[in-house]
Design goal:
- The chain has about 180 residues and is an alpha+beta fold.
- It is built from five helices and ten strands, in the order H-E-E-H-E-E-E-H-E-E-H-E-E-E-H.
- The protein folds into two domains: about 90 residues, no CATH class; about 60 residues, GCC-box Binding Domain.
- It starts with a helix and ends in a 12-residue tail after the last helix.
Amino acid sequence: MTTGQKILRMCSYFRFDPLEGTLYYKNRGEGDGFKSYRACMAWNGRNAGRAAGGVRTDGYVGVGFDGGEHLAHRIIWEMHNGPIPDDMEIDHIDGNRSNNTLPNLRVSTRAENSRNAGVRPTSKSGVKGVIWNKRKRKWSAQITVNGVNKTLGYFDDPAEASKAYNEAADLYHKEFARHSVASPH
């Protein structure tokens, strides 16, 4: 099946609500892979008009389609914008993996998508781009640029380190910058 055929198939299976960012299953016909008219009617009774898929443990919306699970944001993007290039991803601008409204989706490289990620769950500081340097007994602001980790300075206060990270993120990551937020200590 060509990419164009796959996109046409997605458009025939799903309706997209642009305000909610949600896919809904459409009524399907007997020729859509059902063994019988009865099986088709049973599927339509259970699914047609209902939201397609559900939120997975990783926060993305997964949708059953063509015998497998697919990510809703990729289906939505392709239904409205055509194929996603092989070396590209779809980024959720606000970082909310289940917010699949079109204004919240954009094509990105893997590196750009990573720049827009929030603070890692394993972060000991809880602030993106900020770590505690035991040797110096200070907060260190760091940013990765073109695969190279850059130290931005050492600070007494994590809020100062966060500010340095945010300024560097704006400079280096541009529209993919995700700011860190330090809570006052």
